[in-house]
């Protein structure tokens, strides 16, 4: 494990964002050029939330962030690491995270961190990164995006937060492209929080869709013990869509966007459930999914669909207690109809996105 | 021509809507049953605006109303007409309107008026209708919907305005179904005003998308002297859509809806111009259309596409003077590249929809 050249990492407290007010106590220019950025912290810790992509008719262009569950990245300046490079010193968290490579070129956090360093033109400092996986892999909750987002934000904040969210999404996209395809519907909300619409890729244009702050939005996320690889789930999709289904899904996508902006939870749930193109092809590949959706709706959910490429099912409600009840019914349905063990989480919309949660200033 | 049994039609003034405050001076129950509605006016005159359907990626589910241009219907109680029936006494207006049938079963206004009478269960009163066409036929400006909307609203108001806008859209849809297909993207905004998203048909669900009142939205409508029959324009469309184009258009539809609700004219124009499915197939069938779009954009329009099934081109801007300039460039392009004469109109968004513009109370 790489050792930080100053104090070992110590979380010093939680704050939302924007470290520009924290004046570094010491700055030493490690660069040979005058333009290269210097670190403003010895070490930082960042968090990036889970994300729900697709949201039914929002397939491949809409996603949102889920509060209170995600990945952490700790990052420190490390003189034992080659200048301009990243070393992954440790990966902790859930059982499956042991599968992840510590080679930064093959790790989501590593790829995004390198991309961010390149954007910032960091050539004179080496960094050491620790990834703490809070999200299961391949669950349809944007696990790879959360790692990438946390890493991109950590690198950016360590050097003073010069990149804006669009640039951070571009850095994260380099990671997503290698892992699951060039899709920003997880990485964009993981970085920006809330709902994000991907308007175009060339150039990358993102629209933040503000869900009214005075309204509550609760996700019930039920993840079965089942593997649904993104590649397989994508292969299940048709290459062509009938015109009537196209028009239907387009109109539901419009209704979804309007419901988000107007804070109309009933309308949002209805649109979420209304996909006629992707969900009907993917649901049969996840044992019990159709029954799980039915159980969620019968238990009072406003809407239910597959989260990302699955296998997690996501239902929508306005109340935490009712969310727990709905989650129980969904877990039962996965067991009864799919013979799958499943775990439920009840979470709020994350409106912040990836952020610094702790930092150690330079001394 | 049928003659009204009381005073001949006299417009008595203009007001926006809702005649319920105008107490009728005389009511005589013409019905044998106690439940049948009675007319509350001797005669009414209604207006319904032109509409722009599709709006690029909003194909077949989104439309909006255009102020200051549309059709008028004058309607009066007429004892010379069979009870429960409608007679079309006259059709005036532009040259082509002579083509329209005066048989109410084959006339948009007639069909919608009959449907509205049926909904209101009017069996004991005969009505005489005059249609004043302000819109050219087959122009892509919702000519048939304007006639139907004006007729439905006239009948409804004559009997006290009992039907809500959704029911009026259903009445208008009976007409649209016979003329151009069961599509509500003209009739719904013609009746409701503003932007309307058609969420579903079974049951009919409509979403009003409120464009912020403090912002101005100007349409430049350029109609060439060219016939683009809806059937032919529909036949040009593919029956299947590639998945990548589907996702693209869906995301643009979402962006279109978000831009409307946020009053983001630049975003709205961009989305309007971004259709990859319908416009590319239809534009080549309208001589000069591609050049017209180019001319509009070069002259500063925020966006441009085909209005409805064409041949009218619609461009978007925030200022009337600039709208006139854009219109001139578009007219020139139709002439230069399409060898077509064209006429330009510069109009605002209509936020009211079909309404009573005059009425003669019962005496």
Automatic annotation (TrEMBL), chains A, B:
InterPro entries per UniProt: GHMP_kinase_C_dom, GHMP_kinase_C_sf, GHMP_kinase_N_dom, GHMP_knse_ATP-bd_CS, Homoserine_kinase, Ribosomal_Su5_D2-typ_SF, Ribsml_uS5_D2-typ_fold_subgr
Key words of the record: Amino-acid biosynthesis, ATP-binding, Kinase, Nucleotide-binding, Threonine biosynthesis, Transferase
Any GO BP annotation: threonine biosynthetic process
EC number(s) per entry: 2.7.1.39
Keyword Amino-acid biosynthesis tagged: yes
Catalytic activity entry: L-homoserine + ATP = O-phospho-L-homoserine + ADP + H(+)
Entries under SUPFAM superfamilies matching the protein: GHMP Kinase, C-terminal domain, Ribosomal protein S5 domain 2-like
Residue intervals of the GHMP kinase C-terminal domain: 257-333
Enzyme class (EC, first level): transferase
Family according to the record: Belongs to the GHMP kinase family. Homoserine kinase subfamily.
Record-given protein name: Homoserine kinase
UniProt source species: Erythroxylum novogranatense
